User: Fold this.
Amino acid sequence: MRQNYLLSPARQLTEDEQSLVWQKPASHVESEAERRICEAVKRNWNRGEMKISTILLEGDAGSGKTQLAKALSADFGLPYTKVTCFADMDKSDVLGAILPVLSEKDNQAGSVEYQYYPSEIVRAYENGWLLEIQEPTVIRDAAVLMALNSALEPDGSINLPTRIVHRHPDFIAVITTNRNYNGCRPLNEALRDRVQHSEKMDLPPIDVMMERASEKTEFRDDDVLRTCAETIVLLDQTAKANAIKGVAGMRSYFFWIDDISQGTNAVESLYHKVIYKMTTDPDEIMLLEQALVKSGLKETLEDVEPHRGRSNGEELEVPADGSDETFHVSQPDTPPAVALKKSADSEGHASGQPESTLETHTTDTGENGTPLYHELSQEEQAHLEEEKQSLRKRLNQEARAAVKGSCHEKVGMIVHRPESTLEQQQEYRKIASTLMPVIQELTRKTEPLLEHEIAVEFAKNRVYGSRFHAERTATPDFRYFSRKNPPNENPSLAVALRVDQSASMNAFGRLEAAKEAAVAVCEFCEACGIPTLIYGDTADRSPREKMSMYAYLDWEKPALNDKCAIMSMQGISNNRDGMALRVLSEKLAKAPQTTKLLISLSDGQPKAMPDYSGKLAAEDMKQIIKEYGRKGVIFLAAAIGQDKDAICEIYGQEHFIDISDLKQLPMRLVQIIARYL
Assistant:
């Protein structure tokens, strides 16, 4: 225990409380985040309103949030306890409950007594312990969050059925929550406002990972430790870039290293300790395998020599859920070396697709596939053109407003609304029909997720609706509303696809692949009811028009969309990526959906006249990604050209997708979007 971090040195803990103070194992390595939190809390502990007593740790599973919360218990000398939140959590889980107490004597007399049992939150709150509140983002009931908000006030109190409990001066709340997981919502703003210190939790540096694993497993081969740590980091980044829900974290790393130390082949153990924990989907496994092969880590892992391992019965101290439980392992027989093999569906996975159980419906073709038309009257035609013009005007105004105050403010820009020809309509339908079997299969798999999403928002014992009838409040069926509706009937995902229309996209079939990808995204999102933007852009089309944007699909006026116009995409001139990203990011940021995904499809790094290139352009894009990332926009860069390294450096490895095979592009994008649901 670091004595200089003790918050109340004179406080005398009971024997039970002393047993709750976490003891750091020998393998514990003090992180920069731990040191930073301890110093901040200690420095402000006796400064009244500036006291830090509510801390937020936000990050992926396995990033060490619970481990850090326990370490703070040891540093501060406070008993540690935790509460794990769940979707249907109610006030009794916060306040405690009054439960019947029935003794044998009472049972004979037919009498029942009731007793109040405090919750773990109340115990920590009243006694001055360190409380870890895990995953409050999953709680549906707003009343529960309000109770937490009140309790976390610096001078807060909890009104119990038997008394009022005031916040103990030593009470510290550590909120731990995951990012972008199913069932998790953005942290309640009122709750976030009560946080005095926040940390973004990621995997520790490679050297720290190695040191922790070496201490826990007593494995000392630095080369193997480093290779495995680099593998964990790469798999984690690849999973994030491809929206694979599983994570590769420290727990997986510890158990993998320990398995290697027991004599297990490194590649074989990788699947059972890491990859299969992340996913068992063949397509997702294939993506992880491809990343390993490309990085060269696959070959390095195959060269790892089996180790003798430890003697039978030796203990390995590895926290399964952040705890300090120990696990007994025995030395297995060393299996023969195996090569990293492809998943079952890695070759030709598109062939042999199961037949779709969904029927396709179209409103723009007849029985023989020919388009159906009806003539508009002159009034209808005039009204339609007026609406189109109004929408174009509004889109241009919004685009100029989005770049105001940036380096693009004085760049001449026009937002176009392309319209399709009959030939392009036929081409669109031809491509869509080719892609439809796979899209329908993905839609079929996605539908249960959409149903679950609605059900999550539709809490039990709640009545929802659009029109309240006061006269019905006394009816036996309790149907207070004219119509029952869940509060959110639409998917909580909005998607924007940006397509680079620079001249270089004309080479090597890139533009054709981009068109097919846009068609696939359009059809899949339309089938799933996902609000979608599909924009193309090019720069330096003319001295007057330094930036051109093409709104092929926009959610402002869906009836005016002409999706077949996607086939009119052309590679024209240069690319001013940052301007396009800013315009689309601004539209996404204003969308009401919880998850906002922007996919940029490009073959090269930004370059536009006169000086938008190199470091200046890269820094502009990084700033945009950082700025709108704080507003909830998730960026993904699908690279299909020669400047993949430069694009990866701009977006970051976690947001980079390498599309080496253009034939895979349409389905890769659709699969990624599906995973975000």
In short: The two ends are 44 Å apart (CA to CA). Residues 206-328 form one domain.
